[in-house]
Amino acid sequence: MKTTSLLLPRRSFLKAGAAALGTAAFGFPALLPSRARAATGRPGANGRLTLAYIGVGGRGMGNLNAVGPRLARGELAVAAVCDVDENRLAKALAKAGPGAVPYRDYRYILERKDIDAVVISTPDHWHAANMVHAAQCGKHVYVEKPACCTIAEGVAMARAARDHKVCVQVGSQGRSQEECFLANRYIANGNIGKVSQVTCWHYESPVDVNPVPDAAPPPELDWDLWLGPLAWRPYNAKYCHGTFRWIMESGGGQIRDRGAHVMSNALWIMNADRQVFAGSKDRASPVTIAAKGTLPTRGLWDTAVTMEVTYQFKNPDWTLGWSQPGVRLPYFDAEKAKALKIRDTYGAVYHGSRDKLIVWAGDGQTFTERKAIDWVPGPGAKTVHQSPEFDHYADWLQAIKKGGEPVMNIEAGVAAAYLTVLGNLSLILGRPLTWDPVKREIVGDDHARRLMSRPQRFPYVV
Amino acid sequence: MPTILSPDDLITRLRSSDDTVRGPAWQGAATAGAAAVKPLAGLMADGERETARAARRALWVVVRHAGRPGAAKEAAAVTHELILCLENQPVAVRHEVLWMLSEIGGDEAILPMAVLLSDPLFREDARCALTRLPGRKATAALRTAFTSAPEDFKFALAESLRTRGDSVRGYPTRKLVPSRPTTVRASNAG
Predict the structure, then answer these.
(1) Per residue in A367-377, pLDDT tens?
(2) A120: helix, coil or strand?
(3) Mean pLDDT for the stretch of residues A386-415
(4) What single-letter DSSP state applies at residue B5?
């Protein structure tokens, strides 16, 4: 608990410095007493976990809806919801039910001893601070993808999870999807031979064709808290909910948003998480990253519209390609695609020495070819991780209750995010990069090394 | 081989209202070099929003090209011009320049950046930018600022010093201290 030794207890802070800092006028809400349900981070005797939701916009509401059946069965309780947008907060509160308490600032939630775990669906630039702070307060974490926006954030997240012994699942749900499991098992058992290349395709990032001037933030939004770790800038209607994805410092474009799904699956199927985010005892070799792309010629959004990134791995040798838009491969069953609204506008092809296999989409809906679905493993066949009920949340909850690592644990999540971060860095620097997965640093480029971190605005620091 | 534009030609193209002229101009600004820094910084405050944005992006392209391995002289020349921009450009431009210096600035940038630690308009960006600079001199500048900083800013400087491995007595992090409560009431729940 080295980090927390530096923490100022809130009570002391209020007593010592609130008046001087002009915060005395803030009416801190009464904190709920511990319900003695369980020690922080451990489910109670009845096995029921108490959750809090941090960030309840589009994705956060999706995550809240996803646990509905478990709430109904009494397996979970939602004790708090949090958002810096009061309109969104009010909607989420209505959804969460009468037991939930609303907060604007997630740090009130972290003070509550009765909350075992948090689900973080904030904008990407908040993920690291939210997750690290939650871990330091003993909460298990489900954090949306991409895990991090910088190399340094990823290192801090992995360290926090390890040091504070909390279970972290990153929201790249593809690894928990049934057909991703089937694709992984099919390839792991040698059905397409040795895979030396994975090529991903994905539609382009949008262009801000109708830019608007900076303006005063809407009254329901705490803009300063929304920005959090980022350098302060004026509010702009094209840089907030949802649209943050098209700003490099926050969302990072399609490669970081969807790449954290599609390339997460590639790392999983290639058993290559540790080729990107290795431990000191691993013998991983450097990875080279080369990116090129086209940037928007007008508007606020600054992420690549089209993009080609090649990642070259060694020992074992294989190549991963990210391509916006790349070559779209239609789903093999047009009627099924229409009926199930299967998105084939992104996916990946696994090129083996004997055959290839396509995995479409790669997030909450993931599909593969008939040959992998129909394949029946024989005696002695290799097994791969199978999430209970093919449900990403169930996988996380099982890991909390029974121990072990969830399929998209924080190191896996950081590995996937690193691919996207390094791709973007290579693009904006206009040159290839070399990544040392053991030292977890860029080598041979002092300028790029500085970009491994981005100092965060105080006090929103990891 | 992309065309190498003179600073004047670059500025002229950035002033174009045609995206197909302005866009390729800033995207191709890499080799414009130190001579383009001052005019680009000036254009960043232009009243035409897309022109100002294109100038800002052009300057970032210049900075990131100058930071490439083996281009120390070019980086130093661009840094020198950026430092000058800290003295006489509008506030928003100087904020951006601080972050540019955080990427390629060397020891010569430390003092001009550190001066801004005492200016409430710039001190947080200056602190972040200095935190990114490698070396003991940057740490020493943060330490010096810490000794004379107003009480409320000492917490942030202490954070920077600890990030850089320096020990600081007192001024613990405030990262877990909640700020404003919501006005949404629990009773709103349906």
Answers:
(1) 999 999 999 99
(2) strand
(3) 97
(4) P
pLDDT above 60: residue B125: yes
Q: In this structure, are residues A427 and A176 in contact, taking their beta carbons and an 8 Å threshold?
A: no
Phi, psi of B101 (to 5 degrees): -65, -30
Judged against a pLDDT cut of 70, whether residue A83 lies above it is answered with: yes
Written as one letter, the residue type at B23 is: G
Look at residue A102 and give its three-state secondary structure. strand
- A10 and B162 in contact by Cβ < 8 A? no
In the stretch 2-61 of chain B, residues with CB closer than 8 A to chain A read 19-20, 22-24, 27, 30, 49-50, 53, 57, 60-61
Per-residue pLDDT at A17 exceeds 90? no
- pLDDT tens-digit map of B148-179: 999 999 999 999 999 999 999 999 999 999 99
Which of these, A69, A64, A66, lies nearest to A82 by C-alpha position?
Answer: A64
Under an 8 A CB cutoff, do B189 and A97 touch? yes
Query: Does the beta carbon of B131 lie under 8 angstroms from any beta carbon of chain A?
Result: yes
Which residues have a Cβ under 8 Å from the Cβ of A333 and sit 6 or more positions away? none
Whole-angstrom CA distances from A133 to A160, A175, A232, A292, B6 are: 8, 26, 21, 36, 49
Name the percent of chain A lying above pLDDT 70.
90
Predicted pLDDT at A9? 37
| Cα–Cα dist A217/A279, whole Å | 44
Picking from B19, B60, B75, the nearest residue to A298 by CB comes out as B19
Of B139, B150, B159, B45, nearest in space to B91 by CA:
B45
The pLDDT value recorded for residue A39 is 43
pLDDT band at B67 (very low <50, low <70, confident <90, very high): very high
Sign of CA dihedral A45, A47, A48, A54: positive
β-pairing verdict for A117-120 and A140-143: parallel
DSSP one-letter string for A155-199: HHHHHHHHHTT--EEES-GGGGSHHHHHHHHHHHTTTT--EEEEE
A386 vs A113: CA distance, rounded Å: 32
- Classify burial at A315, counting beta carbons within 10 Å of its beta carbon; exposed 0-12, middle 13-18, buried 19 or more: exposed
Tokens 């599609």 -> residue? A262
What is the 8-class DSSP label of residue A236?
B
> Which pair of tokens denotes residue A175?
């690894």
State residue A280's pLDDT score. Answer: 86
- Indicate whether A40 pLDDT > 70: no
Closest CA to A80 of A62, A95, A65, A68: A95
